[in-house]
Amino acid sequence: MVPKIHKRGKRTIGLLYYLYGPGKAEEHIDPHLVASWDHAAPDPGRDAEVTFKQLQQLLDQPLVNLDEGERPGKHVWHLSVRNGPTDRILSDDEWGDVARRMVAAAGIDDPDQGAGCRWVAVRHADDHIHILATLVREDGYRPDLDFDAVRVQAEARLLEQELGLRRLNPGDCTAAKRPTSAERHKATRMGRERTVREELRETVRRAVAGAETQEEFFQRLRAAGVLVRTRVAPSGDLLGYKVALPGDVNADGEPVFYPGAKLGADLSLPRIRERWSGRRAGEPDKPVVPSGPAQARRRASAALWEAVLVMDRVDDTVTAAYIAAAGEVLDALAQTSAVHTRRELREAASAFERASRSHVRAARGHDRALRQAARDLVYSGPALGRGEDGATTAMVIDMAFFLVTVAAHWHARKEHAQQAAAARLAADHLRAAYQAAAAHPIGVLTVRGRSLALPVVRRQAARLRQALPELAEQVLAEPGWAALAATLADTEAAGHDPTALLAEVAAHRELASAESVSDVLVWRLRRTADLPADAQALPLPDGPSVQSPAGRKTGGTTARSHRHRGR
């Protein structure tokens, strides 16, 4: 159940015409009253002799009783209450009870006080009602509407439970503003999948990902093709900015601009500047030295993993900073990854945007490594979906999945219900993106593992049992065991102790949330041992060369020389 308080208005009759009218697309069916301040209130929807004007005069009677100078400028209060598509259809009596509960919760009409405002609840569809109220009480006083939005949301959560409806997570007023119905209708008319507000929010998020200065931020915005206007104080100081999409105009043909704060509380200029507050005074800008997508993904993997290892042991403000900066990494990945992973990564970044904001204020500065990782990803350019680019993409998604999972657990402990749900949704999208990215590199490793000499396989299985006795049999039964066996053989060929390294990477973080423990261990080992993520050209230990899925022989190249090329 979603209650939404709309902008206050001046004309009661205008809103009545809309509520009882056909709607913008003939979607209003059988408009009628389900509840009101007075059980005898006339209903223009069911009584042909009642006019809208008569109902309007009754609603506005307390307003007329006041001197003109005492009347509020905008006296029309409007609340819509909508159920979800999977909820059962409520009866008129049930919607009437919902309306009475809502106006009481908001402070519009409390029966215990005896002198409330006049209001009506109109139903013109199965799934929602509209409540219209005049903001003057019968005794001439104004209603107390402080925190009315918070109160009706809390009441909605109780009604969901009592009426057996889909239960939504309680909010904390940190969510970005949702598109209005007018914005959604406009998007439909323009043939857009998303509203302009949503497109601009994503564009601004991507522009700020890893940016170091406001000049760089504005340059990225303009390069993305959006219109930018800034607000400057008489002193010359920059106070704010707003953005518009070319072609999105109002009735006068002028661009429709959105201030950053209206796209998201964390996208206002002061909040964006906080991201740069961790820099020391006078510290020069770091030069941008693109090093290739694969190297940028390796560094991002390391930064994400370092954050994962300490998030449970640091102050909440530092954890909030890591979570916010991880959102920048996801935004950077979404705009630089190959096509077959881009959609899921984009959805993951969009979902995690909700998880990156809470009432815990981020202690900026601790997140510099993650923000630098986002910057590296942006400036290293788009990655190919194959070779080391594709394999390191799988690696970094795997690390991002664990950070997002830790963020979900942290939010759940703090009772941040919406943020925890958003992080879990982001994790689902990351899992799907990982499966697309990892299919080829894990496939290559699997072929190599199945081609290992039997003594080599037995040696790796013994190491697994020694390092992880509790998980060994589960891992050995997984489809990914062959890829892990090949990786253990590669760590040995590179001069590492596979048993000690396996125990080390497994102990760093829980593995229960992993869909494939063997896959997780593969990427942890390859990152920690600095092995190439793409094992296409590595030789088989203790065995002859074999044909890879791509038709290229895997023998004849040392691990050291391949690792040097991949760095």
From TrEMBL:
Q: Which residues form the MobA/VirD2-like nuclease domain?
A: 70-165
Ranges for the region named Disordered are 170-195, 535-567
Question: Which superkingdom is the protein from?
Answer: Bacteria
Basic and acidic residues: compositionally biased ranges: 180-195
Which InterPro entries does the entry link to?
Endonuclease_MobA/VirD2 (IPR005094)
Descriptive protein name: Relaxase/Mobilization Nuclease Family Protein
Task: Please give the organism.
Answer: Streptomyces leeuwenhoekii
